[in-house]
Amino acid sequence: MRQLKSIGASLLFLALGAVSATAADTGKLIFGQTLPGGSLQSAPVAIAIEKGYFKEAGLDVEIVRFPSGRRGLEALIGGQVDLAFMAEYPPVIGALQNQKFAVITELGRFTGNRIIGRADLGFTSIADLAGKRVGTSLGTNAEFLTNLTLEKNGLKAEIVNLAPADIVPALERGDIQAAVPFPDYYGKAREILGERYREIVSKDYDAYMVVSASRKAIEQQPGDIKKFLAALLKASELIRNDPASAKAAVVAAAQGALSAATVDQAWAEYTFRLGFEHIEQPGLEAEAKWVEAKGIIKGASIDRAGLRGYLADGPIGALAPDLNALSK
Fold first, then answer.
1. What are the φ and ψ backbone dihedral angles of 158, each rounded to 5 degrees?
2. Whole-Å CA distances, 143 to 82, 163, 288
3. Are 193 and 118 in contact (CB under 8 A)?
4. Which residues lie closer than 8 Å to 151 by C-beta, 6 or more apart?
5. Which residue from 278, 73, 65 is spatially nearest to 184, judged by alpha carbons?
6. What distance, in Å, lies between the first and last C-alpha atoms of the chain?
7. Portion of the chain with pLDDT greater than 70, in percent
8. What does the H/E/C string look like for 2-16?
9. Residue 208: which of 37, 92, 294, 304 has the closest Cα?
10. How far is CA 274 from the centre of its chain?
11. Nearest-angstrom CA–CA distance, 49 and 235
12. Are 184 and 167 within 8 A, CB to CB?
């Protein structure tokens, strides 16, 4: 079992916010975002775009869309984007693979993850997952929740790997009987399935939304990274002080994928806050150990110190020290 303890030391400069001597801020960053329906999960980014906060900060942010945070991380590592939105699970996978990136801030926490299904196909409780075909997207936090739910309840089911946008249609056709999709798709499932729709809110797992950055961007564009975070801080202020305006901006940014009613209904399940307050290394370590135990990445292992090297708290800590619990 290969130990990656050296990551903590080799990436320590990230946590300290060190700046490369070859820093060359360009005033432009390419940001990997999920499809418009995911704008609620990354509300501070959506608001900063809609309200023009990035431009006010002197930054041109180009948006590239991906179906999942896992795809965004792959593009980040491959050099197609500078920053990307994702849940905390893809960074754990990336850390286990010794990839070159780091999380530069949380965006918030989501407490309303759901297991959904069709009552007419026998799904009315968690116990009903036994023997069912359960759709989810492998390599994402939805997969983690799926397996966690089955394991905690001592159940066995057939897990079907589907693209995020294909899960609800598969459920409607009856190809699967239950699913663990991204939050973006709960509303669509309710609409399509109608009285057949059933959902169970998980009490076992809270998702943390984060922004990750490439090592190159952190090294070479420290000023641009801080401008990006400054715009998000302004968006967070709007969320805190004028939630009605914040919600309206999210709806506008979603380009029709989210209704005002959907945003209003789900808003209470989100806690939007930048920095490093909620995400905990023990939680990340637990996910890493689960991945190791499942053999998802053969031979890979990482400890808490190694995971700490993937949390680059220097930039946000310089802008808002009170938000950086990692330094306390």
1. -90, 115
2. 26, 12, 14
3. yes
4. none
5. 65
6. 33
7. 92
8. EECCHHHHHCHHHHH
9. 92
10. 13
11. 9
12. no
Is the CB of residue 301 less than 8 Å from the CB of residue 138? no
Q: Under the phi-then-psi rule, with left for phi > 0, alpha for psi from -120 to 50, and beta for the rest, what region is 17?
A: left
Query: What is the predicted pLDDT for the residue at 17?
Result: 42
Q: What is the amino acid identity at position 112?
A: G
Parallel, antiparallel or unpaired: strands 178-179 and 133-136: parallel
pLDDT at 23 over 80: no
List Cβ neighbours of 295 (8 Å cut-off, separation of 6 or more): none
Q: Residue 92 and residue 104: Cα distance in Å, rounded?
A: 14
Helix axis angle, 281-294 relative to 141-152, nearest 10°?
A: 80
Nearest to 225, CA basis, from 124, 107, 64, 103: 103
The token pair at 59 is 């930054």
Q: What angle do CA 215, 4, 288 make, to 5 degrees?
A: 90
| Distances in whole angstroms, Cα of residue 56 to Cα of each of 50, 232, 278 | 12, 12, 28
pLDDT at residue 327, rounded to an integer:
75
Q: How many CA atoms lie within 13 A of 128 on its CB side?
A: 18
CA–chain centroid gap for 176, Å, is: 25
**Angle at CA of residue 271, ends 266 and 272, nearest 5°:** 105
CA distance 326 to 278: 10
Instruction: State the Cα–Cα distance between residues 82 and 93, nearest whole angstrom.
Output: 18
Distance, CA of 129 to CA of 263 (rounded, Å) = 29
Q: Which residue type occupies 83?
A: L
AA letter at 149: T
Give the separation between CA 279 and CA 295, rounded to whole angstroms.
24
Q: pTM to 2 decimals?
A: 0.88
The token pair at 202 is 């998980």
With DSSP H G I counted as helix, E B as strand and the rest as coil, what are the percentages for the chain, rounded to 5?
50, 20, 30
* Residues 283-291, mean pLDDT to the nearest whole number: 89
